[in-house]
Design brief:
By secondary structure, the chain is mainly alpha-helical. The protein has a single domain, classed as Non-ribosomal Peptide Synthetase Peptidyl Carrier Protein, Chain A. It is built from 4 helices and no strands. Helix 1 packs across helix 3 and helix 1 packs across helix 4.
Length: 100
């Protein structure tokens, strides 16, 4: 799985989400931490965004898949940047890509 494509997808999708949250001018880059830096973004949005990124990349994730919070470190103590989230996405969903 190409981490660069995942990161680009996350950036694009987060820009769209922020526009829907009336924050279209939000700066969204690989160093943006959505849980800290993006106005109105909440963790309940994470599963939807994960499915949108997968769709954007042509990855089929089963609808009954339990979506882990890839927006925080594995130990749950640190909020991650979009670049780091892309890495977590690749780690967590590599099996799904292998099935495709």
């Amino acid at each position: 799985m190409d981490r660069t494509r995942v990161e680009a997808g996350l950036i694009e999708i987060h820009k769209r989400v922020q526009a829907r949250l009336n924050d279209a001018g939000a700066k969204v880059t690989s160093s943006t931490c959505p849980l800290s830096d993006l106005k109105g973004f909440e963790s309940v949005m994470i599963p939807t965004i994960v499915f949108e990124v997968a769709d954007h990349l042509g990855i089929d994730i089963s609808e009954d898949t339990k979506i882990k919070n890839i927006y925080v470190s594995k130990d749950g103590r640190q909020r991650l940047t979009i670049g780091e989230i892309a890495g977590r996405f690749c780690d967590v969903f590599a099996k799904e890509v292998a099935k495709a």
